[in-house]
Amino acid sequence: MNKVVMAVGAHADDITIWAGGTLKKLSDEGNKLICVRITDDYADCIGLTPEEAVNINKLEAENAYKILGADEIIHLNYPTDTLAGVDYLELREKLIYIIRKFKPNIVISFDMNGLDEENMDHIITARSVNEACWQSAVENFHREHLQEGLKIHMVGQRYLFARNPTVINFHVDISKQIREKIKALCEHKEVMKNFFHQQKLIAQANGLHIVLLEDEIPNETRVKVMVRAIYGQLGKDYGVKFAEVFHRIGAGFLEDFEL
Known about the structure:
The chain is of the alpha/beta class and 259 residues long. It contains eight helices and seven strands. The protein has a seven-stranded mixed sheet, with helices on both faces.
């Protein structure tokens, strides 16, 4: 039976970086894919005004998600790097509404157990998504949704990723999807340009010269090298060519009671 998969990222490239291969694999298997982007990435650029960045990054995000097989794309349009100061209950309610509307069997997003996470957008996304996953099944939370005709919904499984994960109990072999992951990530042109620019600044601040970060190296080359190196090493850990890893949350102890 085909499932509904919902991926939620704080920024345009989050779900592509950490779960792009998994999303493509699930989509190829016939599951419906919903991609939710919480912020507008107005600052994730070089040489663009905030307005230009918002428009370009939205378009590039949609191009990337379509490569991954997205059936629905939702932009919540919160200003980037402000989630620590927004109305948290409002954000969580929006996510509960989306979960009740699309009824995902699997939600893929940030893990609350990551170490040394310096980006508050990631932290708030992790908290709000994981709370929404169980609160969407409680009928007295936002009864106005039920009055609109929606029903409560319990998410069956969560695949959670983090910059520095503390819990990894699940991996996905993405060897057949690695090219689409790279292709999708290359669609985030402005985001990737800014990412590698920031890496160059870090290198310079530490007195390092890294050829791969020089301006004449195309972003496509950088992305390919980075993705194959990182996810190739993860693949070796699990005996496959390329892999993505997650903290998988399912039925927990209930699985021990199944007859």
